[in-house]
Automatic annotation (TrEMBL):
Residues 1-23 form the signal peptide. Belongs to the outer membrane factor (OMF) (TC 1.B.17) family. InterPro entries: OMP_efflux, TolC-like. It holds the Pfam family OEP. It comes from the Bacteria. It is found in: Cell outer membrane. PANTHER family: OUTER MEMBRANE PROTEIN TOLC (PTHR30026:SF20). Keywords: Cell outer membrane, Membrane, Signal, Transmembrane, Transmembrane beta strand, Transport. GO terms for cellular component: cell outer membrane; efflux pump complex. This is Transporter.
Length: 444
């Protein structure tokens, strides 16, 4: 029995280890990161709750068109001088009585308040959906930026490690040349200093990589910082022909794809509806009502059921309310709603201007990033040729270690600049594509 229990515990432990190994080996794609962030972001969850609140408001607005129905009942024991509810006479004795009734009313006309309230709720639902979509877009861009930062740090680390491997090989080669008498002993010091500097850069880049992973984990609300990693996705440039589109065309597309202008337009529609709702209070209201009541008293010598039929009654009719003066309260609401409408009109204009400026800025950023990347590539090619020439001269003793180290550093800087401009170009292109309505990633 004990051996069977031990076997179960051993199997459970092995399964846990296998599960942890599998979890640690998982590498997140950009699509997985964006989807996870959107599903778990606290602000998005709050916005989704706002939509549920709007659904409740919509139900209440629909209920405004329906009639009301209420029932009431009252049972009492009367002592002393009281009006008998059955006979409507004063009686100075103790008796029990009961009264019950029901009433219903339905609005026939209330200045179109119910209709306008329902329309406002529908507009509010549209505005909240736009806000939710914008929040998702902003989070997706932030995740994409963090994701590309990790990829950049990874490639930067590879470049530095490869270069350091070459430096260590050069040190070994230089030791051999020194031992052979081809180079002075002092030439190795500069190479060792370069090696130490590269190792320091590797440590700094490893730290930068770790910090970028932590930043993305925090954005995703993950706590497994140590085991978190992303898939080594390849992003080639140029990514798209987005620069072939005119800036005016991109602006027109952005007004449909980006939610900022749509949110401002929805807010303006809400403000207009608020004005009409406030004006509804100037109009009279008309409602119909219907009521039924009955009563019973212990002091009346008639059966309980007979009294209910004998003393029952109905009431029905119309009720008209005409607003005449309410201390300028309605006028104040109308004026405030008009002022708010003017504010939202200005906000719409500002949103359109901001969007146009952002698109033009993004277009210029992509163009400049492309030029910087192409220039960095040309510089890297020239640095590679210069480094190969310096290496050949150094190996035959025509260049000292200091000049050779300078050529190595120049090559490292050129490689780093290519990586930096590459990922800057990628991210800025992604932003411009986003304005044009192109998704950040392709669905698998």
């Amino acid at each position: 029995m004990r051996s069977l229990t031990a076997a179960k515990w051993l199997l459970t432990g092995l399964l846990l280890v296998a599960y942890q190994s599998q979890a640690q080996s998982k590498k997140w794609t950009l699509e997985e990161c964006v989807d996870y962030a959107i599903k778990n972001n606290i602000s998005i969850k709050q916005s989704e709750l706002d939509l549920k609140t709007v659904a409740v408001e919509k139900l209440e607005a629909i209920g405004g068109f329906l009639p009301t129905l209420n029932a009431n009942a009252n049972y009492s024991i009367n002592t002393g001088a009281n009006i008998n509810p059955a006979t409507n006479q004063f009686e100075n004795e103790t008796f029990k009585s009961l009264s019950a009734g029901a009433n219903s009313s339905i609005p026939l006309f209330n200045g179109l308040q119910n209709w306008r309230a329902l329309q406002r709720v529908k507009l509010s639902e549209i505005a909240n959906n736009y806000r939710l979509d914008k929040m998702k877009d902003d989070i997706a861009l932030s995740v994409a930026n963090g994701y590309l930062q990790i990829l950049f740090n990874k490639e930067q680390l590879k470049v530095l490690q490869n270069q350091n491997t070459i430096s260590k090989q050069n040190i070994e080669r230089t030791k051999q040349l020194i031992e052979a008498g081809s180079l002075p002993a002092g030439d190795i010091y500069e190479l060792q200093a370069t090696d130490a500097s590269q190792e320091q850069q590797i440590i700094n880049t490893q730290n930068a990589l770790l910090i970028s992973k932590i930043s993305l984990c925090q954005l995703l609300l993950l706590e497994e910082y140590a085991s978190f990693d992303i898939a080594d996705e390849a992003y080639d440039v140029p990514l798209s022909a987005i620069l072939n589109e005119s800036q005016e065309n991109i602006v027109a597309k952005a007004k449909e794809a980006v939610k900022d202008v749509k949110i401002a337009m929805a807010n303006l529609d809400l403000a207009k509806k608020d004005v009409s709702l406030a004006r509804s209070s100037y109009l009279p209201t008309l409602s119909a009502f219907l009521g039924y009541n009955t009563r019973w008293s212990e002091s009346v010598d008639i059966k309980f059921i007979d009294q209910l039929y004998l003393f029952d009654g109905t009431a029905f009719g119309l009720q008209l309310n005409v607003p005449i003066l309410n201390g300028f309260a309605t006028r104040g609401r109308v004026q405030r709603s008009k002022i708010n409408k003017e504010k939202t009109e200005l906000q719409l204009k500002q949103a359109e201007l901001d969007l146009e400026r952002n698109v033009y800025q993004a277009y210029n950023d992509v163009s400049n990033a492309q030029k910087s990347y192409e220039a960095a590539q040309k510089t890297l090619e020239a640095r590679k040729q210069a480094f190969d020439f310096s290496k050949a001269r150094y190996e035959i003793g025509l260049m000292n270690s200091f000049d050779y180290s300078q050529a190595t550093v120049a090559l490292e800087n050129a490689q780093s600049e290519v990586l930096r401009t590459k990922y800057d170009y990628i991210f800025r292109t992604k932003i411009l594509e986003f304005y044009f309505g192109i998704p950040l990633y392709k669905k698998q």
